[in-house]
């Protein structure tokens, strides 16, 4: 091995010893995986100070959601979800890789040549992974780049091969280039919608981007098509995050629903209060209200019901002597029982009302609560009238 490269590796190892957390650098994920495969103990991810501008390595932030109505008193502020994002990497922004022309006619010779290039690519990756520990850092990256060039040549020869594009996607995952891997996986699945490797690699790439639910969905499909141990290992990292996100979503959906119910209750209460106010404004406390039509009577009785008040309907006539005898008392009782609605109907003026209530004699008094007759009295017995009013008004 070149002496200069050995010196570079010595310097790198020295940095690792002085700062072991360097192995958690996203671009060195392949190196960390290699060390773990040898049984090495990897130091834990260092925690960030809460005052630091960056998020903790094991936390994914969910922005607070405000009440769009602008009612700050009922805002639901979502908390952070503690997610394991140890293996999440920065998204790659390389130009799209070559996909080949799907319209070309692929001959057997082209298929064979593509297979040869694929084999060379796989051998290059295997050679890089088999390098000694000191050579690994430099060797694996260069071998993966070489493998991608070779598999790209294979794809250009046989663009309609889903397995070739899924294989290149796998190489991109090893290079921590999830977006490139997703492009290849998507292309593979367009060619073969049942490509287990296409779903698997796309799921792994989405996990690298922190797209946990999408990753889990792809990995579960891959598992049903062709389960392997690697899928299970990735799901063990992905599913706990998915469960936390689902639990978080259910929690805030429940809180949002409770807020909607509370808002509806408040709105209903306000409408009821408004109706009660309108009803009260239509009534005259301490006074006797004259009724001149059936429609007017309906309005007053409805207002009394909405205000939860007792209404007394007094039928009289100008020619009735007993009516003239008891009318002053009825007026004075209206002043005494201000929360009772005192109504008065002249049977000769409002004949429709008298007919609706089947009036056969006056004076007649009907006690109405919530639109229903609860008692009545016919005659000019002052004591009886006052007693009945006291009885029914007392239950208000």
TrEMBL record:
Gene3D superfamilies linked: 6.10.250.3420, Glutaredoxin, Tetratricopeptide repeat domain
UniProt domain Thioredoxin: residue ranges: 268-394
GO cellular component: histone deacetylase complex
Keywords: Disulfide bond, Electron transport, Redox-active center, Repeat, TPR repeat, Transport
Disordered: annotated span: 42-76
MF GO annotations: Hsp70 protein binding; oxidoreductase activity, acting on a sulfur group of donors; protein dimerization activity
Name listed for the protein in its UniProt record: TPR repeat-containing thioredoxin TDX
Organism: Malus domestica
